[in-house]
């Protein structure tokens, strides 16, 4: 399943969950996405600040991180590169 050409990327809201739940949910969601697709993960667990980037690196996904008010938005580009 790819989000290319289908509007907004899938949004996975893992706020209120604790490690390792945000990474596990993101990994499961990315399995259903094609290379080049984007997934947006929202998380407020401090451990996700290191876990999500480490997971993305190990899996070869691109990642941008944006701090919001009390939580973080992780935009994952499946298969590498950097999200637009």
Automatic annotation (TrEMBL):
Residues 12-36 form the UPF0033 domain. Belongs to the sulfur carrier protein TusA family. It comes from Phycicoccus avicenniae. It comes from the Bacteria. This is Sulfurtransferase TusA family protein. Pfam families: TusA (PF01206).
